[in-house]
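User: Modeling request: complex.
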Amino acid sequence: MKVDVLLGLQWGDEGKGKAVDVLTPRYDVVARFQGGPNAGHTLEFEGQKYVLRSVPSGIFQGNKINIIGNGVVLDPALFKTEVETLEASGHDLKQKLHISKKAHLILPTHRLLDNAYETIKGDAKVGTTGKGIGPTYTDKISRNGVRVGDVFHDFNRKYARAKANHERILKSLNYSYDLTEFEKEWFEGIEYLKQFKLTDTEHEINSLIHAGNNILCEGAQGTMLDIDFGSYPFVTSSNTVCAGACTGLGIAPNRIGEVYGIFKAYCTRVGAGPFPTELLDETGDAICAKGNEFGSVTGRKRRCGWIDLVALKYSVMINGVTNLVMTKSDVLDELEVIKVCVAYNVNGKEIDYFPYDINARIEPVYVELPGWQASMTKMQSEDEFPAEFSAYLFFLEEQLGVPITIVSVGPDREQTIERYTGEEE
Ligand code: GDP
Ligand code: IMO
Ligand code: MG
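Assistant: Request completed. Predicted assembly structure:
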């Protein structure tokens, strides 16, 4: 019996969807614990590509139970579209997808509020995904939210009350809108949702643990977007860190076993906010082009930069990472030199810890390592790794103090190389 967690260590889009899909055969249950349709988790196998937003990434590997936990925020209209698309491609989800009654619903007016708040922030806008995430979590915390379980209890009154609150705010902001189409799709989504198993998933998940099942908790976004520990205020509105798996699913902290921390061999960020190692030059453009760094939800160009070990060490610490997963190393295949940020220079002072204010002027301090300049996409085992790549892995492991147990060398499920396999129990 074990509960493991897989989560992002950077600013999201590290390849969580692919990694969860690869690990799912070892588990009986896959559960999302936070976030909502701001996530876009991409999986590729057998020549097909899927982008998941609210549905956990364990749905393609056999008949595993997939849970959308209480920590998630759900937009019924987007959920309906997502599931219908998956069902059209031959994947039946109704029996294996279970949804927490305690998950909060994203209302049509939450999306409007998200956009209205961004507009009034002007230059200081966060660059949200526009999915209503912030306003929905705000209502949850201020005890004004509407939950999935409410669809069976006095729902219309609860909806109308929340909507009226939102409309008052929108009016005060002079925000003009037309809800008709939005609301129609949303109510169709509510009816659609009723066909799913809506349960107290905290009971279900604990019963499954007691019965000896293995659970994999899937994070969304990344540690640098965490509401408490990320680059505030340029963050999302949930706890993306490991502790979020406990509150977002009802799993006791002492149940958590392995923590898989996933990161790219470089770094990306989508939306506004500080990014110390950002590359605003041809190298950045080359990484963006080769890595196809465009948002899977919004299509926005992702900002690209060198790997940042100051931020990664912080993420490893906050999450108690036991295994590292490195993705997209193939994107760096052609580079002659690879830079690794090992410290920050802040106002002339060198620091190696993640500071309170990363919005301040930070000059990254780099170590340069030789590139491997060989294509890695077809490699099957670490015996084939070029010496320079092995040296890169070794350097990162030494700095981070955690083994890199999985290396991803391409988007496909098969392009995955495991290390230290002989040393597992
Ligand atoms: P997630 O949000 O963490 O699940 O990541 P996304 O799916 O948003 O972004 C990761 C992108 O990189 C997707 O398009 C994946 O198909 C792709 N990807 C994942 N691993 C690799 C890899 O090792 N190499 C390459 N080239 N692409 C990868
Ligand atoms: P996955 O799970 C990358 C970013 C947005 C914005 C900030 C707040 O695919 O890694 P929000 O809509 O959450 O209020 O936006 O967070 N963001 C993500 N960036 N990957 C994601 O998810 C993200 N989800 C939100 O761009 O900067
Ligand atoms: Mg993504």
